[in-house]
Structure formats: C-alpha cells, structure tokens
Amino acid sequence: MTPATAEPLVRHSPETKWYDYGDLECTEQLTSDLNCFNSIEKQAEILLKRDCELQWQMQSKKNMTETAWLSTILTRGTAKDKVTAMQILTQRHPVHSISYVAALVNNVAKKNAREAFSVLGLLKDLFINELLPPGRKLIPFSARPVEKINLSSLDKDFNMKRKLILWKFESDLKTVYEKFVAAIERLAGENIEKLGILSCRYALELLIARAEQEQKLLSLLINKLGHPNKTLATRVCGYLLQLTRKQPLMRHIVAKEVERLIYRKNISCCTQLHAVSFLSQMNLHGCDPTLASTLLNIYIGLFRMLVFNKKMDDKILNVLLLATNRAFSYAKGDVDKLIKEVDTLYKILHQSSFSTALQTLKLLYQLLTTSEGISDRFYAALYRRIMDLQHGTNVDRQLFLLLYRALSSDTIECRVIAFVKRLLQVCISGFSCGNEKFFQIL
C-alpha cells in the first residue's frame, strides 16, 4: 500500500468547518439508471467507511491514550459522556465522526423520554455549531450528478474519491438530522409539560439557526398551538413570535401554515383562539403588503365560518376583531374585501357581548370612514349599545372615544342631540363616571 493511500483522503483543519470545503455540486434532473446510481452510492459508502478507519488509525498512532479513552467512552460511557466525546471528535474530524452521531441519535429516538431528553440539548448544539451549514440545506446523494462518475477509472482518481466521500457524508448527515428532528417531535408530544416546552424551544432554536428541515420544525411548532396544555400552547405562541421577529422573511410562510391549522377539520375553538392570537401579535411594520392582505383573508374566512357554524364564542371573536382592526390599518387597499362582510359584522354585533360588540363597532367605523362613509345603520347600532355601559370600565372608555369620533363627524344635528339625550339618561341611571369625562371632551 502506498503512503498516499495509507492516509485519509479528507483532512480537516481545526479552524475550518466541513462545509467550507464541502462539495456543492448538484443536479435537478435525477439519474434514470438506478443500477448505476446504486453502484456509485455503494462505492461512496465503502470509501467513507475506509476513510474513517484510516483517520482512526492515524489518530491512534499520534495519541494512543486519548484514542483509547475516546473509544471506551463511545462504547461504554453514559449518554452525556458520549455526546461530550462526540463534540471533541466532531470538532476535529466531522466527516469521520458521522457514524457516532448516527448511533447516538438512534439511541435517543428509542430511549424513554427522560433519558433521551438528557442529551437532546447537547445534540442540538452539536448540529448547530458543528454540523449544519448556515444559509443552505444539506444535499442528498440522489441530487448529485452521479452520471459524471466513471467507476472504472475511480481507483486512480483521488479527487473523485474525495468528492464521493463528501457527497456520502452530507447525505448521511441529512438522514441522521431527519431522525433527530423526529425525536424532538416525539418528545414534544409527551404528556410532560416541561419536556414539551423545552422540546419546542429546541425546535425554535434549530429553525432560527439553520434552514435544514425547516418545514418539519415549523409544522411541529404550529401544530403545538393546538396542544391541550394551555401553558404549552401559549409558550409556543411566544416562540413563533420570536421566529417572525428574527426571521422576518418567514412571516408569510408562517401565516399560511397557521391558516392551514385554523381550517383543519375538527379543529377546536381553543386552537383557533391561540392561532388568531399569534397572528394578531405578528409585527407588520415594514412588511410586504401581501402579508397584511393574507391575514385579512384569514380573518374574513374565519368570520364566515364562525357565523355559519353559529359558534359565536366571545373570546375568539374579540381577538379576531382586534386582529382585523390591526391588519386593516396596514391593508387599506383591501377595503372591498371587508365591505362585502358588513352584514356578517352587524350580525356579530347584535349577537355578542358588550366588549366584542365594541370591537365590531370600531372595525365598522374604521371600515366605513375609509370607504362609503358612516351609515345610518352604524349610528343606530351605536345608539343601542350606549345602554350597555358598565361603570366606567376600560371598555367604556373605548366606547366614549368611539362616540366622540362618530359624533364629531356626524353632520345631522338632530341625531347628535339624540345621542346626547341618551347619554344624559345613562348618567341619571347612575353610570356617570365616564360620561362626565365624555361631556368635558364634547
């Protein structure tokens, strides 16, 4: 055996990452010759295995004591010790450590929740800091241009051998990471609150840091908005808001995924409430106008569904109206969409609680002033709601502000006088705390 073949073909420098010298070559057209593809992939597997053996042999010659210690830890150590050893190996020889990472991920996938969770965070850090490339996804072997490989001349072509090793390593890493994400998903589904919250947090960190498996990680988080544990669902809502702040380009993708959750069959009202609550808090400053338009479409569709199914739940309606008011201020060009829903809004107004009715009136006022002007129908609905004032609460203050705006823009004097008389009647009835402030403004 020549000296050249006695050393690994892939050599790693401590100051670099494997993806700094990894091969990015890929093809969109998959090979049609499956036999040829399988033969080349098998050869790549053999080359990778042989390169790992050579690396281990070379390392043993340089430092026999450390190599023996690492070998003992990797075979008989605790799960945490194995991750520590793998962190050392991965930092030094990432390409040649894939089999150890794969073995530990397989163990995590099979172990009980508590044992698996003890190493989950360490593995997450290993993937982010050492293994997953930033700014791109891993390339599977099936997407490589294998038709360029000539097996008959491979023995003498060391550059091509090295390329095949890197192709196979990256493909294996992609498979291992898929299993790791599946393990996180399984742990997030356990009936242990702390375990579920931390699993979702790890999913968030992976999603923010790297693009690999982003669709599965995003689906994992969004599905947890429907978790029966309200603490977990609320925490996930916060995690998704962190995601949209740190990755603003993902806001539209996230909104569409949440929309699919909202309209899923047999979805609970509680899940819809958490979903709308998240969307209503999403930062819309500087966003693409299509995002606000997408949110309006979601809200309008949910309005229709709730009214059609006669599920007039005040909690979700209140949040939905607040969200619609907010999105409308960023999507004034979509006024026609909401104008078509005026009858639906009036139906909600007459069948809901005072706080929900107030949000409906605020939305109607904003909508009508932007389009056709304030109608008699609006003033009639507002007039009827004055008798529902509730001892100077915050909701009352919002109603007084709406009254002030509506009456200030009303050109029919007799109607303004009628409103003032109604307010005086309310004052006499004892609900005068907020009315005094209103008359001071008026």
From TrEMBL:
Residues 357-429 form the CCAAT-binding factor domain. InterPro entries: ARM-type_fold, CCAAT-binding_factor, CEBPZ/Mak21-like. It comes from the Eukaryota. GO terms for cellular component: nucleus. PANTHER family: CCAAT-BINDING FACTOR-RELATED, CCAAT_ENHANCER-BINDING PROTEIN ZETA. Belongs to the CBF/MAK21 family. This is CBF domain-containing protein. It comes from Brugia pahangi (Filarial nematode worm).
